[in-house]
Structure formats: structure tokens, C-alpha cells
Write a structure and sequence with these properties.
The chain is α+β, with helices and mostly antiparallel strands. It contains 5 helices and 6 strands, in the order H-H-H-H-E-E-H-E-E-E-E. The N and C termini lie far apart (about 40 Å).
């Protein structure tokens, strides 16, 4: 009961619409459908070495306050995370993506939905060049999205890379 009252209070103070990220206008095809926003997400961070990424396109997909949360392991084996806003993500990841080339593609997906709230587990693989025969990395993006009625918004991208001890589950690859 207390939680429900808190939710009512919170929503009562929320603005009636979501504002676009400053300087970023979304293309309709990028945000009209779940498939569209997922394709735009992967395309916006991908490209050959030496080619700047389309950070404005990425920003146009994001709800205000969106977070990028990579995970990793410390030398002693502890799992850690780092929460970044879009500017922090661009600053941390951007130079490496451009210097080395980076092509990330979705290889499987599981979607769960409750009203406007959508949780998507998106398995991915990454290559330095689009035509590399084998990926150098695979993993899973846990993506939370909002169906705003007239468009989709990415709220959070939380991810972990595959390791020898932690393989992508078959159910995320379409195998069960």
C-alpha cells in the first residue's frame, strides 16, 4: 500500500511527456518500433576504424537520464559495474570504438513486457571489421525500454561479456 501511494505521488509530479535529448532529433524509423530502435542502437555504435560514430543518433534513442552500465571483473575475480550517462559512455568507449573499428550485431533476443515497460535480453557479437570471420567478443545486453505510445525510448543498457565460464544461454540465441 505504501509503495502504491509513493508511485501515485511520483507520477503526479512527473511531466506529461518525455523530452528529447538536447541536440538529438530521432528519425521516425528509428523509434517507431522495437525492431527499429534496436537496429538504430547497434548501428549508431558500429563502424569501421577511423570513422566517427553517430552519437547524435544514439542520443536521440535515449530517455532523459538513460544509463549505460558495463560490467567487468577485477583481477581478483570480483564482478563490478560502472554506471555512465550518455556523455560518460561516449567519453569512455568512443575513442576505442573509432580507433579499432567496432561492429556489434544482435544474434538473439528475448522480450518481456508489462504495459509500457519492456525488458529485452539482447545477445550480441562484436567484430573489429564487418567482414571479420569470427567475433572477438560476445555477450548479453539487458535493455530496459519505455513504449511512450508515439515512440520507443531506451532507459538503461546493462551488459556483460561472455566468458569461458559464462556462456550465452541457448534460450537467448533462439535455441530454447
Amino acid at each position: 500500500m505504501i509503495l502504491a501511494a509513493g508511485a501515485v505521488l511520483l507520477l503526479g509530479t512527473a511531466s506529461p511527456s518525455i523530452a528529447q535529448q538536447p541536440g538529438a532529433r530521432a528519425e521516425a524509423a528509428d523509434v517507431e518500433t522495437l525492431d527499429g530502435i534496436m537496429a538504430a542502437l547497434y548501428e549508431s555504435i558500429s563502424g569501421p576504424a577511423g570513422t566517427p560514430r553517430d552519437w547524435d543518433r544514439l542520443r536521440s534513442l535515449l530517455a532523459p537520464g538513460a544509463r549505460f552500465i558495463p560490467t567487468g571483473q577485477t583481477p581478483d575475480g570480483a564482478t563490478r559495474l560502472r554506471a555512465l550517462d550518455v556523455d560518460g559512455y561516449v567519453e569512455a568507449a568512443g575513442p576505442g570504438l573509432v580507433a579499432n573499428g567496432f561492429f556489434e550485431t544482435e544474434i538473439g533476443r528475448v522480450v518481456e513486457r508489462f504495459g509500457p515497460v519492456v525488458h529485452l535480453m539482447s545477445a550480441y557479437e562484436s567484430r573489429n571489421a564487418a567482414n571479420d570471420p569470427e567475433p572477438f567478443m560476445r555477450g548479453v545486453n539487458s535493455i530496459q525500454l519505455l513504449d511512450g505510445g508515439d515512440r520507443w525510448w531506451i532507459v538503461t543498457i546493462f551488459w556483460a561479456n561472455e566468458t569461458v565460464d559464462r556462456l550465452i544461454p541457448e534460450r537467448l540465441l533462439g535455441g530454447g
